TrEMBL record:
Protein name: Large ribosomal subunit protein bL9
GO cellular component, one term: ribosome
Biological processes per GO annotation: translation
Entry-linked Pfam families: Ribosomal_L9_C (PF03948), Ribosomal_L9_N (PF01281)
Entry's family note: Belongs to the bacterial ribosomal protein bL9 family.
Taxon lineage: Bacteria, Pseudomonadati, Pseudomonadota, Alphaproteobacteria, Hyphomicrobiales
Region described as Disordered: 150-191
Keywords, alphabetical: Ribonucleoprotein, Ribosomal protein, RNA-binding, rRNA-binding
Amino acid sequence: MEVILLERISKLGQMGETVKVRDGFARNYLLPLGKALRANAANKARFEAERSTLEARNLERKSEAQKVADALGGKSFVVVRSAGETGQLYGSVAARDVADILAAEGFNVGRNQVELNTPIKTIGLHSVTLHLHSEVEIAIELNVARSAEEAERQAKGESLTSADAIYGVDEDALRPEDFFDPEADRDGDEE
């Protein structure tokens, strides 16, 4: 199906372009969300008549998204979750959780604007990309930890899943002699 794009869509085209897309993509996404019109003579005339208002609306949305991106730039958000000793979360942090965390901080970001291909399942520092507008995207940092104190330690660069963090042992201080006696008789016969 051929459609006229009413806004820039990444990997598809710019506003005003006529592009060929799959029927399901057009019927289920582009047309219902008002991102495109079917490419026919009436809609082409309608688009040309409304082009200036569409461009102004797009510019306004882009400037609002840029303001949010400027406010989010360089920020890190702490996410406290239950996790095992190895750093594996008992649950996960999904796009919905990221949107809720940002909403709690006063940022209006929808979960469909959060690019998270797979949920976060381990503690640590994770970079998450936000697509605020088709031309504005920003990366934020999520600090996933078991407590606020651990989040502070993680932010300083400390690893919370290594042996020293879990067992209170310095990994560099471990020597083979600590685990077995090299002088011991291996076959169990006493001489």
